[in-house]
C-alpha cells in the first residue's frame, strides 16, 4: 500500500508491554470444570460409573483449556484428585 | 530461518517446558492407577462372603453328578434357591438341590448327606422341597433327558454347566469393562489430540509471525519495538494458553502501541474440536491499536458484514449511543454490498473510506479477491475501558501455508493508523459530534449524581434506623428515668420552700 517517505517509527515513543491483569472473578467461566465437579458428585452419590468417568474427562478438558497465568502445579494436582 | 524459528520457539518452550511433561505424566499415572484398581476390584468380585468353598466344590460337584443323575429326571428342582444365590454359584446350590429333591429315595440320601457337609444346611432353612421349576433347569432337564446314557448325560450336563459358568463369567467381565474401556480410550485419544493440536496451533502462530513480524516485514518497518519484553531480543509472541497468542508492537507515531491477539480454534481440546465440527468456528486475529490522545479526532466508525454490523451497532455502547447505520451514498464509490458502514457522521465515513482503500480491499472487485478474511473494523474515541481511543481490526486467519492472502488486510492497519492520526474533522461535522458528546457526557454526569444521591439517602436512612433501634432499646430505661425525674420534681414542689438568703 502507500509507503511513507519518512520512517513512521518513533523509538522514543516506545512503551513496554504491560499484560492486562485480570482478577480471578473476571475470568471467563470455567464450564468444563464446573461440569466435572457436578458429575463427580453425582457419580459418588449414585454410584454410577459413567458419571465418574465423565467427571474425569471433563476435568481433563478444563485442565487442557487452562491459561498460563492461572497455572500452578498444585492446582493441577488438586484438580486431578 | 532456523535461527529466527529458534527465537520464536524459545519463549514458547520457556513458558511451559516442565508443565506439559508433568501433565502428561500425571494423566498417564492416573489412568494406570485407575485401571489397576478396577482390575483388582473385578477380580475380587466372584468371591462372595461365606462362599469361600467355591473351588473345593467343583470336584465334589462332578462326583455328585454321577450319583445324582437319575433323580434329575424325576421331580423338578426347587428354583428359589438357585435364583436367590448369585450366578457364579450355579454349581454348588444345584448339586445341593438335586439331593434335596428326593428325600424319599434312600440311595440318594447318603451322597446328599455327604454334600451337605460342604454346605451349611441352615442356609437353606425353611425352603419347601417342591417348587416350580425354572425355565433354564427345565431346558437342562429336557436336554439331559433327550440324550441317552448316564455317562453321556453326565458329560453333557457337566459340559453345559461348566460352559455356562465360563460363559456367564466372560460376558460379565467384558460388559463390566465397557465403560472403562470406552472412557480410557477416549482419554488416550484426548491426550494424543492435546499434543497434536497444540503443535498445530503453535505452527500456525509461528507462520503468521514469521510472515508479518520477522525481519523486513510490515510490522518491523512500522514499529521500533516488536515483541513482549524490554530489549530487541525479546520474544515476539506470548502464548497465553494453548490457543491464544499475543503479539505486541510499540514505537510509532500517532499510537502508543499495537496488540495483536490470535485466538485459534481449540484444536488441543477434543471435546471442543468435536463441537466445532458441528458449530463452525474460525481462527481469528484481532489488532488493537492504542491511539495517542492528541492523534485521534472525534471519530466513531465501524465496518463489518451486514449481519455483524447490526449486532455491533446494538451491542457496543459507543456505537449504540453515537452511531447509526449509514446507507451507501449515491454519486460515489462505496464498499461492496456485503459490507455495512456504521458511523456517527456520513462525512467522516466518506472520508475514511477513500479510493485507495476501496481499490485495494473494500471495493467490489477487490473484496472478492482479498476480502474473504475480513471480519470487522471499529474505530472509536469513546471506548469504555482503560484507553479511550482505539482502532480495532478483526480478521480471520488463513491456514499456515496461505499466510500471503492476508497481506493486504494487514497492510490496512498501519495505513489507517496514519489516516486517522492525521484526520481532522471539518467544522460542520465537528459541531455535530461535539453536541452529541456533550449530551452524552451530561447524561453520564447526571447518572453519577443520581447514584451518589441515592447512596447518601440510603446511608441516612440506615443511620436513622439504627438510632430508632437504639432508642427502642433504651426506651424502657429512659421511661423509668423520666418517671424518676418527674417524681423527684413533684417531691421538690411538695416540700416547703426554704428561702435562703445570703448574708453579707
Automatic annotation (TrEMBL), chain A:
Belongs to the Asterix family. Its main location: membrane. This is Protein Asterix-like. The keyword Membrane applies. One of its GO terms (cellular component) is endoplasmic reticulum membrane. It comes from the Eukaryota. The chain crosses the membrane at residues 34-60. Keywords: Membrane, Transmembrane, Transmembrane helix. It is found in: Membrane. The keyword Transmembrane applies. One of its GO terms (biological process) is protein insertion into ER membrane. Pfam families: ASTER (PF03669). One of its GO terms (molecular function) is protein folding chaperone.
Automatic annotation (TrEMBL), chain B:
The keyword Membrane applies. It comes from the Eukaryota. One of its GO terms (cellular component) is endoplasmic reticulum. This is Coiled-coil domain-containing protein 47. It is a single-pass membrane protein. Keywords: Membrane, Transmembrane, Transmembrane helix. Residues 54-113, 126-166, 483-504 are annotated as: Disordered. Residues 95-113 have a biased composition (Polar residues). One of its GO terms (biological process) is endoplasmic reticulum calcium ion homeostasis. It is found in: Membrane. Signal peptide: none annotated. It holds the Pfam family CCDC47. Residues 490-504 have a biased composition (Basic residues). One of its GO terms (molecular function) is calcium ion binding. The chain crosses the membrane at residues 21-39.
Amino acid at each position: 500500500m502507500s509507503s511513507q517517505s519518512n520512517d513512521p517509527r518513533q523509538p522514543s515513543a516506545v512503551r513496554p508491554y504491560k499484560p492486562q491483569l485480570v482478577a480471578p472473578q473476571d475470568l471467563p467461566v470455567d464450564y468444563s470444570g464446573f461440569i466435572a465437579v457436578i458429575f463427580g458428585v453425582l457419580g459418588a452419590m449414585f454410584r454410577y460409573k459413567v458419571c465418574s468417568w465423565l467427571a474425569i474427562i471433563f476435568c481433563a478438558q478444563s485442565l487442557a483449556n487452562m491459561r498460563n497465568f492461572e497455572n500452578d502445579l498444585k492446582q493441577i494436582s488438586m484438580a486431578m484428585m | 530461518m532456523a535461527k529466527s524459528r529458534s527465537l520464536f520457539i524459545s519463549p514458547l518452550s520457556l513458558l511451559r517446558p516442565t508443565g506439559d511433561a508433568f501433565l502428561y505424566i500425571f494423566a498417564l499415572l492416573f489412568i494406570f492407577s485407575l485401571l489397576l484398581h478396577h482390575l483388582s476390584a473385578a477380580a475380587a468380585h466372584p468371591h462372595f462372603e461365606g462362599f469361600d468353598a467355591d473351588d473345593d466344590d467343583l470336584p465334589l460337584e462332578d462326583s455328585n453328578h454321577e450319583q445324582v443323575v437319575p433323580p434329575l429326571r424325576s421331580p423338578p428342582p426347587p428354583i428359589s434357591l438357585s435364583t436367590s444365590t448369585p450366578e457364579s454359584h450355579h454349581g454348588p446350590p444345584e448339586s445341593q438341590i438335586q439331593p434335596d429333591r428326593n428325600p424319599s429315595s434312600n440311595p440318594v440320601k447318603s451322597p446328599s448327606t455327604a454334600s451337605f457337609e460342604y454346605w451349611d444346611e441352615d442356609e437353606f432353612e425353611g425352603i419347601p422341597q417342591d417348587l416350580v421349576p425354572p425355565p433354564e433347569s427345565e431346558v437342562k432337564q429336557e436336554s439331559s433327558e433327550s440324550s441317552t446314557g448316564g455317562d453321556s448325560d453326565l458329560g453333557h450336563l457337566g459340559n453345559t454347566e461348566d460352559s455356562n459358568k465360563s460363559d456367564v463369567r466372560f460376558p460379565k467381565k467384558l460388559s463390566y469393562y465397557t465403560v472403562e474401556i470406552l472412557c480410557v480410550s477416549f482419554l488416550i485419544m484426548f491426550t494424543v489430540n492435546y499434543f497434536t493440536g497444540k503443535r498445530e496451533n503453535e505452527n500456525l502462530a509461528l507462520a503468521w509471525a514469521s510472515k508479518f513480524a520477522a525481519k523486513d516485514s510490515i510490522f518491523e518497518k512500522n514499529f521500533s519495538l516488536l515483541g513482549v519484553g524490554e530489549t530487541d531480543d525479546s520474544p515476539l509472541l506470548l502464548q497465553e494458553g494453548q490457543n491464544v497468542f499475543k503479539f505486541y508492537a510499540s514505537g510509532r507515531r500517532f499510537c502508543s502501541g499495537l496488540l495483536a491477539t490470535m485466538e485459534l480454534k481449540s484444536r488441543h481440546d477434543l471435546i471442543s474440536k468435536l463441537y466445532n465440527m458441528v458449530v463452525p468456528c474460525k481462527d481469528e486475529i484481532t489488532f488493537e491499536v492504542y491511539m495517542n490522545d492528541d492523534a485521534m479526532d472525534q471519530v466513531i466508525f465501524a465496518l463489518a458484514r451486514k449481519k455483524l454490523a447490526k449486532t455491533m451497532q446494538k451491542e457496543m455502547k459507543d456505537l449504540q449511543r453515537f452511531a447509526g447505520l449509514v446507507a451507501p451514498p449515491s454519486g460515489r464509490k462505496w464498499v461492496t454490498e456485503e459490507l455495512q458502514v456504521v458511523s456517527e457522521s456520513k462525512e467522516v465515513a466518506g472520508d475514511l473510506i477513500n479510493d485507495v482503500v476501496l481499490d485495494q480491499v473494500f471495493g467490489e472487485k477487490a473484496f472478492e479477491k482479498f476480502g474473504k478474511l475480513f471480519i470487522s473494523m471499529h474505530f472509536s474515541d469513546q471506548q469504555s475501558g482503560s484507553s479511550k481511543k482505539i482502532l480495532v481490526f478483526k480478521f480471520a486467519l488463513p491456514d499456515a501455508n496461505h499466510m500471503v492472502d492476508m497481506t493486504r488486510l494487514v497492510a490496512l492497519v498501519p495505513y489507517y493508523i496514519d489516516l486517522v492520526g492525521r484526520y481532522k474533522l471539518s467544522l460542520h461535522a465537528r459541531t455535530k459530534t461535539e453536541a452529541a458528546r456533550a449530551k452524552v457526557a451530561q447524561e453520564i454526569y447526571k447518572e453519577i449524581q443520581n447514584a451518589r444521591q441515592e447512596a447518601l439517602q440510603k446511608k441516612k436512612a440506615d443511620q436513622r434506623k439504627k438510632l430508632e433501634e437504639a432508642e427502642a432499646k433504651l426506651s424502657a430505661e429512659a421511661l423509668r428515668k423520666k418517671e424518676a425525674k418527674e417524681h423527684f420534681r413533684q417531691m421538690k414542689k411538695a416540700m416547703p420552700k426554704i428561702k435562703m438568703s445570703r448574708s453579707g
